[in-house]
Amino acid sequence: MIESLLPTRSARAIVGWSIVAAILVLLWVLVDNNYYLRLLISAGIAMIGVIPFGLLMGHMGYMAMGQGGFIGVGAYVVGCLTVQRFEIDIWAALPIAIMVVGALAYAFSFALFRLRGYHFSIGTLALGQLLYLAFDSWEWATGGPHGTSGIPRPAIGEFVFATNSRFLIIVSVFVFLAGFTSWWLARGHVGRALNAIRQDEDLAGARGLDVLRYKQLIFTFAAVWAGLAGGLYGSMQISIDPSSFTIWGSFQYVIYVIIGGAGTLLGPVIGVIFITVLDQLIADVGVWNQMILGALIVITVLFFRGGLWGGIRMLWALALKNRSADRSAVSTQAGAAE
Amino acid sequence: MSAFAQQLIYGTSYGMNLAVAAAGLALLFGVYRVINLAHGQLIMFGGYIAYVVTTGLGLHFFVGFAAAMVAMGVAGVILEISVFRILQRRPATDQLLASLGVYMMIGILALRIWGDFEARPINMPGEEGAILLGKDIRIDFARIVTIAITIAVFAVLYFVVYRTHLGRTMRATAQGPETATLMGIRKREVAALVFFIAGALGGAAGAMLGGLFNVRPDMGFQPLLMALIIIIFGGMGSLIGAIIAGLVLGILYNLTVFYVGSKLGDLVPFAVLLIILMVRPQGLFGLPGRRA
Amino acid sequence: MDPILEIRDLSKRFGGVEAVKAVSFDVPRGSLVGLIGPNGAGKTTFVNLVSKHESPDTGSVLLDKRPIHRLPSFKVARTGLARTYQKNRLFFEESVSENIRTAMIWGGAAKHQDLSYPGLKGKEEERTAELMEFFALTAQRDALPSGLSHLHRRRAEVAQALALAPKLLMLDEPFAGFSREEAFDLIDHLKVCQKGGLTMLLIDHNMEVMLEVCEYLFVMHHGALLASGTSAEVRANPEVINVYLGAET
Fold first, then answer.
1. Which residues 90-129 on chain C approach chain B with CB closer than 8 angstroms?
2. Backbone angles phi, psi at B138, to 5 degrees
3. Interior CA angle at B273 toward B10 and B76, to 5°?
4. How far is A119 from chain B (nearest CA, A)?
5. Total structural domains in chain A?
6. Total count of domains within chain B
7. Is 0.90 surpassed by the pTM of this model?
8. What is the pLDDT of residue A336?
9. Is residue A165 a contact partner of residue A28, using CB atoms and an 8 Å limit?
10. Of A157, B212, B246, C134, which sees the most CB atoms within 10 A?
């Protein structure tokens, strides 16, 4: 059906991305409740970090458990440059933050990618915790346990993105960019390489793929976007402290991907949406919501490895199959009638 | 000099507790290539069980200690049956993820039962007493007790792994499922026993850490992180590696905290980990070339 | 003799075990040579060292006079040394044709003008099609590796390795699980490639087939090179007889 309307992949992609953009604009127009706006911003910031992270964890199969550290570095570099030690404009601070995170991730990637599987996950977990300790103790740059406050919202000329409704515009643009760059990477030869690395990286190397380079590329890519998400988070919150960048933040990224569906671009997005909605629904049960979330993770991993998006696609395929079965039944009947 | 000796003793006792915690992880990894993040919460829950039995019911610490071991051993078996058995032959990330889910569930369970983040003490034998060595090296009884318990635990563990039929089958399973099947091993029972021992080690670590530093709902995280670092440091799956790495890390940690400051002390394990990963990713007692 | 592969003093230790001990030999250009030895002789470790899946402790490997023992595995592959695996390995989520094409993309364009085995000339699609036709895999082009028979999987793996347009192909236990007929079916294909200039190093412990097929043989035992020679020479070598009889009884 879709295939016949839009024959080429790029045509489908253009339509898909237009729909995403339209949804974002619609949300911005329709939602004027401040509480929901804040939720949207939070979800958007999560998506900025999670969609590229999905390439690392889902496509490439390297489950990094330290993204919270990169989020924190992004936030603190912005905080340090805009208020804590300097007074640079946030538009200049964000690119610097991205570069710092990128350089840091690239430097660590040399050590981390000597590891695979469990070792890699634990290595990144330790890196995340190391960065957390740095936020807590390097008072000159971070303000230590008290954190940094007064991080500004960005502005273009006189137009300050001060209200949540305005801030959502910026976040939406970056969600779009994060999604688009990830999609662009995943569809071409990079995507082929990532899939091969997940399936059998030794074989990929033996067939001529520079495995390490692609691993470093994707790790840095995911870290850079996590850093940007962190910078925006700081700007949204205005004040930050180390408690926002614990190991829990890293786990959350992992959870978004696994619940939504690993190995797909839409999976992480669905994961963020689902958990944001779920959080609202089960907010009443207090701390039990963690328990529900934990149970959901266990059940997903045990029985629904494809996550929500995998489930949706399975149902969709089933529906199509039934439809075509109906149709062929109809045509045989028609044939019999003739 | 005496301060150094004092820190050395503290470090040894802390390191031994960590080694017990890490031994549970190392055992699971060695036999089944499983990393169980929920181990951290078994440590925490073990601490609470010991707290309930000793402080709550007023029984002797050893009773609480045994109760913690048994209860967490059973919890380990339940985990094996309900989660890890289903995840055999799945990629490493699946087991990490599932155990992360379990970690969250157990954590909240403790928080709900005991209500808050208040630190609770466990009554240890000889709470106030201490041995004085020379002029000013002081070893309190509680530390001596935990050191003695640790040595006993490792002696029993060594006996089980290297001197019993169960230990032989465990080591055969570690060689590969095929060998184990050839030896006619009844896999399920062995798995249950291994998870029982691993859980019990977690419970033991929790009871001792709780005895020395009080019990809190978030007390499992730090030992878990340390234990993960220890098993990489010692060589994944190596029990002897876990013991030595645990001691080294515990002593280094205490010395750094004492001489340089607590913030840098927290950095020590990660510095050790990064150095190990750079220099010898397979750890002290791991075989090179066999990467996980 | 013009050697295409020169192995000098290659060694590797695992913990206390010396898996490969100071192995040195040459492989003549265009030949079909074999490396045999009982299970556990260190053959697979040796292949892993040459293809750089593992790094040798000492020693050097020259491919066409060019040192390759310091290169990462992907560069070894691009330099012209391809290998297959004892346990059949393909990208299990990709179809047969995709598997072949993937190696072609990463290996780069075929650059060895002096070679002429199937799948060297033309564009990617033509090369892929030619390789699949040569190995009679055209009907399976869209099948996943899990849906193939053992014979077809092995052929697909060799086709994927050839898609790199190598000068030298190392086959690790290519005949494992094969009947004699199936083994010779694969050998026939390999001989066509050999006529096209491809050098091949077969590694197997199946003495019967190896002695029949290989022009020259190297025998490994306990990580070291025990003997070498033509099949008649190896067959007559008392040490080799001793090792094989000792290992199989």
1. none
2. -115, 125
3. 75
4. 7
5. 2
6. 1
7. no
8. 45
9. yes
10. B246
The ipTM value here is: 0.90
Partners of C15 on chain B (C-beta within 8 Å) are 287-288
Q: Is residue B85 part of a domain?
A: yes
Q: Establish if A56 belongs to a structural domain.
A: yes
Average pLDDT on A311-337 reads: 69
How many angstroms separate the CA atoms of B284 and B277, rounded?
11
Give the best residue of B81, B256, B277, B280 to mutate against chain A (max A CB count within 10 A).
Answer: B277
At C105, list the tokens: 């993309």
Are A118 and B292 an interchain contact pair (Cβ–Cβ within 8 Å)?
yes
Q: Look up the CATH number of the domain holding residue C212.
A: 3.40.50.300
Same domain, A231 and A95: yes
Domain count, chain C: 1
Nearest-neighbour CA in chain C from A193: distance (Å)? 9
Q: What is the pLDDT at residue B262?
A: 77
Q: Do A207 and C108 touch (CB under 8 A)?
A: no
Residue of C nearest to B291 (CA): C54
Could you tell me if A121 and A52 are in contact, meaning their C-beta atoms sit under 8 angstroms apart?
no
Rounded to the nearest 5 degrees, what angle is found at the Cα of C46, between the Cα atoms of C42 and C49?
A: 140
CB contact under 8 A, A302 and B83: yes
Q: What is the dihedral of CA B287, B93, A103, A111, to 10 degrees?
A: 0
| CA nearest to A129 within chain B | B270
pLDDT band, residue C246 (cuts 50/70/90): low
Domain assignment of residue B285, yes or no: no
Which residue segment(s) compose the domain that C244 sits in?
Answer: 3-91+166-248
| C161: pLDDT strictly greater than 60 | yes
* Position A17 pLDDT exceeds 80: no
CA-CA distance, C60 to C194, in Å (whole number)? 25
Q: Does A204 touch chain C (CB under 8 A)?
A: yes
Q: Quick check: is C106 in a domain?
A: no
> What tokens were used for B210?
């709780």
Residues A83 and A2 occupy one common structural domain:
no
A244 in a domain, yes or no? yes
Gap between the Cα atoms of C128 and C134, Å rounded: 10
The answer for C 20-59 residues in CB contact with B (under 8 A) is: 54
A63 reaches B (C-beta below 8 A): yes
Contact list in B for residue C14 (CB cut-off 8 A) is 287-289
- Write phi, then psi, for C84 (nearest 5 degrees): -120, 175
Contacts of B257 in chain A (CB under 8 A): none
Chain B, nearest residue to C56 by Cα:
B289
B263 is a domain residue: no
Regions in chain B scoring below 70 on pLDDT: 1, 126-129, 133-135, 176-186, 286-292
Residue-wise pLDDT for C172-205, tens only, equals 988 888 888 888 889 999 999 999 889 999 998 7
Print the domain residue range for A190.
31-287
Chain A within 8 Å of C88 (Cβ-Cβ)?
no
- Spatial separation of the C-alpha atoms in residues B221 and B219, rounded to whole Å: 6
Neighbour subunits, C (≥3 Cβ pairs < 8 A): A, B
